[in-house]
Amino acid sequence: MTTTPQIISPSNPVLGVDVEHGTSLWRGAWRRLRRNPVAILGAFLVLAFVLVAIFAEALAPYAANSREWASEVTLTSVPGPRDGNLLGIDRYGSDLYSQLLYGARQSLVIGVVSTLLGLTVGAVLGVLAGGLGAKVDMVVMRIVDILLSIPSLLLAVSIVAVLGQNRYAVMIAIASAQVPVFARLLRGTMLSQAKSDYVLAATSLGLRRRTIVMGHVLPNSLGPTIVQATLNLSTAVIEVAALSFLGLGESDPAVAEWGRMLVAAQDRFASSPQLALWPGLAIAVSALGFTLLGEALREALDPKGRR
Amino acid sequence: MTDDIIGGPGVHRDDVLHRDLSAEALLTVRDLRVEFGKKGQRTTTAVDEVSFEISRGEHLGIVGESGSGKSVTSLAVMGLLPASGVRVSGQVLFDGEDLLAASDKRMRSVRGRDIAMIFQDPMTSLNPVVGIGTQISEVIRSHRDVSKSEASERAVELLRKVAIPDPGRRMKEYPHQLSGGMRQRVLIAIALANEPQLLIADEPTTALDVTIQAQILEILKQVVADTGTALIMITHDLGVVAGLCDSVHVMYQGRVVESAERRPLFADPRHPYTGGLLASVPRLDSPRGQPLKPIPGSPTDVLPWTQGCAFAPRCANRIDKCVEKAPTLETEGQRALRCFNPLTASPVGGATP
Lengths: 307, 353
Hints:
Radius of gyration of chain B: 21 Å
Radius of gyration of chain A: 26 Å
Strand order of the largest sheet of chain B: 6-7-8-3-9-10-12-11
Helix content of chain A: 55-70%
Order of helices and strands of chain A: HHHHHHHHHHH
Low-confidence stretches of chain B: 1-22, 346-353
Mean pLDDT of chain B: 84
Distance between the termini of chain A: 43 Å
Strand content of chain A: under 5%
Largest sheet of chain B: 8 strands, mixed
Oligomer: heterodimer
Number of strands of chain B: 12
Mean pLDDT of chain A: 82
């Protein structure tokens, strides 16, 4: 080999080339998340919301639905903020501030449970559609299309109407509106991941399809779905309120709930706007918290943002 | 075969090697043809009339530029082409068994155990969210009945084999923590995890920078030699072939245009395309400032093989016959050539590899 270029063959190849230390994909996302002020704000709002929901008893100055001041509520006026009642009295004579704190619990529990339920069912459908080949995909996606063709609130209303008015019906109703979102998203990500080189490489090594789908494609497809779940929490919180507003929420009148507080405020809106203002604000702020956190998470997991 | 793993007792392996070297071909590809195109649409023939043989322990090179069909050939052998929109015909005989007719289940057990493949781009061929230790042991466990700890012990051993320092620690790391060269070593380790009889390397060094290329080739050469694995090296780089392969097939536009043992091919290229490839390689001993000699035209200037010689539009040796009908592959002793008007004198002055 005198005339063709010689391959330089060091007998002791140089070892230990550069290594960027210590971070996995998720840890990198976590690092970016911590540096993002939007994420901090979102996390702060969400954390506050969660803490209030958990420690409502300790934080609230009065018991839920105490109706202590029911006698002071007249047809024309509801007492506003004053000593002992930070935000005033609600329509039925309970402390508005305490009611608001207890209301967080309903929104959070129903919102989180229904999103988890929607995520689980949606993810199972998504994995089936995205991982089991064209025929299964076809069947599953047509089912999802049917779910999707019904407006989500209408779907929720019908489900509550059928299952009866209780919190479980509300959870199922909100979850079923979320199922198609998660199913489509996960399927789409999995199908695009299935075309990548590492899947071809895994196939060339004789791995089972199940191993490839569950061990390789799925873990790479989870990012967008997790982001979507965070964003969906805000929708869920709003939907819990919306269903109660429509009179389809929790049927037990003793349970404080933001949506129902809005309903109660309706006919007193002109004289006592604070009755609608605070629960409305609570819904908006908690939803904002999840949205900000979700958006920040999306940015942190975006491959283009990686360094 | 349970203890017959890389680095394990070598005696048994050597016996197999010596006995089988003289035996019949390990892999025989006959008249392989791959067409792309959906039903009812016009089809494109990516690979046609490709035949070759490789014996146990042999190193075979398939050379050609982009689009010459070399990668499609390897994917067809592995049964990795998509099921729809592709028609594969011919025979791929591995140990006498036609892989093109084999069931999916059978192919899954052949892949990774009997035949393994290394891909071009180490940056994308590893799963980014799974630790490399898991990626290696998973391949071992999918073909062998071993425990998790045995598999991971073996994975460490494999990493050591491909010269990865501190393999125990690397096991827990993720692909993005490794450099390109390191990742390609990991991929080599994975491919060799089950001691395949045949390894197909599809441009394993193309995505790496030059200094790392040499290291990777050296490692590949060593591990393949240690285990007696037959190697099909797919490349566009004649330098790689010169250092590694026993025999070479040169492909152009989906067909083999010239096949020969390495030395005769380098010393005396007969096909004008082979000659052009050799002449275009930059040489260390050429005078300064001398321009490179590319093959004129581009791979898109082609004649369909059905009308004549695909290389004719770029060929300096073209005669009228070349554009009238397609030349056939004529075998002559150890060599085969598809040309009406081959080169006579060597354009690189009697190069010896």
